């Protein structure tokens, strides 16, 4: 890989200190850094346009920021079949697993072909209002259906391949990929899955029932979540924590494996279970 695109969350990298370090490292190992035209926007605003700008000019995108920056970048980059590597300038960083002090070593590994590219499954979501398709989107991490700020229990009927599974009263439901199992779904009590697995995780959010548990379906299943007809307030469908859609009683959403996959570049030395242990349990490898 010679041409490497760079996307930076400038609120995480004030003054572009780590970005400049990355550029220098790419040049040192004989590569070309592809940088988008900088705008006056801050943080993740305008990142979509920046990714679009460089996608046709590079073979890999490296993003600097947190997992939110990674997701924002990946949601555009996957359309160009480009692999992505994340440098963690945030907190946990399950997707951005290269730390600040590892930049030079990571770039060296890339130019020595000492890496793998993992293809992760994505979810396709379709929202229906009054029986008609209202919106479509894809998710790398998850799709959540939740209360839109109203302190009322949300009743969600869940179906697997059109077969009724259960009614979940509570704050909502998260439908996650294995990649997203360490995000919102985990916070809601869902299981952690190896990110290269092929399955769909459904986790109730604060369920108002004693027996409620997460359940796991195969990648070939279709999950349908319907808002109770009696719910008059707005509910919110959120995709990857990036995009929101309002729905109400009688509306429903269908979620299944997407046809496309996102490509994540991984340095060989990075093992998911080691990362999990260090980040979740804050333990050092012995």
UniProtKB/TrEMBL annotation:
Pfam families the record matches: NAD_kinase, NAD_kinase_C
A GO BP annotation: NAD+ metabolic process
Residues noted as binding NAD(+) in the record, renumbered to the chain: 67-68, 72, 141-142, 152, 171, 182-187, 242
GO cellular component terms, A-Z: cytoplasm
MF-aspect GO terms: ATP binding; metal ion binding; NAD binding; NAD+ kinase activity
InterPro entries: ATP-NAD_kinase_N, ATP-NAD_kinase_PpnK-typ_C, NAD/diacylglycerol_kinase_sf, NADK
Tagged with keyword Acyltransferase: no
Main location: cytoplasm
Assigned keywords, A-Z: ATP-binding, Cytoplasm, Kinase, NAD, NADP, Nucleotide-binding, Transferase
Reactions performed catalytically: NAD(+) + ATP = ADP + NADP(+) + H(+)
Class of enzymatic activity (EC top level): transferase
Necessary cofactors: a divalent metal cation
Enzyme Commission no: 2.7.1.23
Catalytic residues as annotated in Swiss-Prot or TrEMBL: 67
Cellular compartment(s): Cytoplasm
Role summary: Involved in the regulation of the intracellular balance of NAD and NADP, and is a key enzyme in the biosynthesis of NADP. Catalyzes specifically the phosphorylation on 2'-hydroxyl of the adenosine moiety of NAD to yield NADP.
Family (UniProt): Belongs to the NAD kinase family.
Descriptive protein name: NAD kinase
């Amino acid at each position: 890989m010679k041409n490497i695109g760079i996307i930076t969350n400038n609120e995480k990298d004030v003054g572009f200190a780590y970005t400049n370090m990355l550029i220098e490292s790419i040049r040192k190992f004989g590569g070309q850094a592809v940088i988008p035209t900088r705008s006056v926007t801050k943080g993740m605003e305008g990142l979509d346009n920046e990714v679009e700008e460089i996608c046709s000019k590079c073979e890999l995108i490296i993003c600097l920021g947190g997992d939110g920056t990674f997701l924002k970048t990946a949601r555009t980059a996957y359309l160009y079949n480009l692999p992505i590597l994340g440098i963690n300038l945030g907190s946990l960083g399950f997707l951005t697993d290269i730390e600040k002090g590892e930049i030079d070593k990571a770039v060296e590994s890339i130019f020595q072909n000492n890496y793998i590219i993992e293809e992760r499954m994505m979810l396709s979501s379709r929202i229906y209002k009054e029986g008609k398709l209202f919106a479509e989107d894809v998710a790398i991490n998850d799709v959540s259906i939740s209360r839109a700020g109203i302190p009322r229990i949300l009743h969600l009927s869940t179906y697997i391949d059109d077969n009724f599974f259960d009614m979940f009263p509570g704050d909502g439901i998260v439908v996650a990929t294995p990649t997203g199992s360490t995000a919102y779904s985990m916070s809601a009590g869902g299981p952690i899955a190896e990110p290269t697995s092929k399955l769909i995780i459904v986790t109730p959010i604060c369920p108002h029932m004693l027996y409620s548990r997460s359940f796991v379906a195969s990648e070939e299943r279709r999950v349908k979540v319907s808002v109770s007809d009696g719910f008059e307030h707005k509910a919110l469908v959120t995709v990857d924590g990036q995009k929101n859609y309002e729905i109400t009683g009688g509306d429903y959403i269908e979620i299944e494996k997407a046809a496309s996959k996102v490509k994540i570049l991984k340095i060989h030395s990075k093992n998911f279970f080691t990362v999990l242990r260090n980040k979740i349990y804050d333990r050092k490898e012995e």
